[in-house]
Amino acid sequence: MMSLHDDLLSRLEALAGVALVARLRDPRLGLPDATRLNVFIPDVHLVTPHRQYEFGTNAPELLTAVLRGLRDFRAAAAPAQVVAYQLGDLIDLWRETPGFDADADVASAIEDAHPEFIEALYDPVLDVQFVLGNHDYDLYRWPNYDVWQRYFHLAPNTLALHGDIFDWVEKLPDRVQNLLVNLLSPGVKAGRAQLEAMRPLNQAMRALDSGAARPAPLRALARPSAVADDDRFNVQDANSPPEMLRFLDSARQLGSELTTVVIGHTHHARLAVHEDGAGLFALVDCGAWIENCCTEDDPTARPNAQLAAVGANEIRIYQLTQRA
Asked: Is the pTM of this model over 0.85?
């Protein structure tokens, strides 16, 4: 019998070339439920055509096909649960306009420029759960987006969020103080007043935004079938370079009950772990659908096109390639 992980892989391989960025199978993750699979779609950064030449989303047609495939996968998997999350920076307000204009319907203009993708993303059968990122933080001010969240606590011990708060911790420590404790309390959702209070931090980070980055290192890629029997592939640990462990320590501080934190934001797909006598902690950085990546054995830049799946004590991150 195929697992939900294997079924997802089969469906992705029917749509695209699929390589494995990283994989971890370990009972210490504390996610034994084999009847639920969480699928995470990282940063998309949609803009209108007049900005596309400078900040274009990678392979939007492929991503649209992936969303439709996830819809069919979710429907066919019932009564098992397949839950899709979009981890923020879906609509790039920062790159579309130089500043916030409460009267300008920027988000609708961006969505209208990508009708097939938006239709697939908002399909009620797929029922995507949305996280606010830093580039689309201001969406909470518009009624159509006021139900989007800053984070999701996934039972029993997983937290999904965009990841920009870790930049707040690193670059604005004097302003953050106890913010993470208040922001990320289980069972408490950030309301409009709290989001307004945090908005100055988001705007301060906008002033520090450095734009496009050099290709993100993936260390290695593998055909999924080649490492199917391996419990670990390309897992970063204490012996890895510091850039592969970015935000790992900050994520561990979010709660002693957590074993897994899932983020986007960095555009750098990787799976990093901390292990000690107390157990295992995993940071799942899902990558992006913008900018580029490369591997140690091949410095040629290739477009980021990544997603992650978490469930049944297993984590996988995939890199997709649009077929010619």
From this structure: yes
Pair type for strands 279-285 and 270-276: antiparallel
List the beta strands (DSSP E) in the chain: 17-25, 36-41, 81-86, 129-130, 151-154, 158-161, 216-217, 232-233, 235-236, 260-263, 270-276, 279-285, 292-295, 298-303, 306-311, 314-321
Q: Helix 60-77 vs helix 4-13: angle between axes, to the nearest 10 degrees?
A: 140
pLDDT tens, residue by residue, 8-63: 999 999 999 999 999 999 999 999 999 999 999 999 999 998 887 677 899 999 99
Region for 126 from its dihedrals, namely left if φ exceeds 0, alpha if ψ lies in -120 to 50, beta otherwise? alpha
Number of H helices, E strands in the chain: 11, 16
Q: How far is 77 from 271, CA to CA, in rounded Å?
A: 26
Q: What is the pLDDT of residues 63-96, one digit of tens each?
A: 999 999 999 999 999 999 999 999 999 999 988 8
| Residue 290 · residue 267 · CB < 8 Å | yes
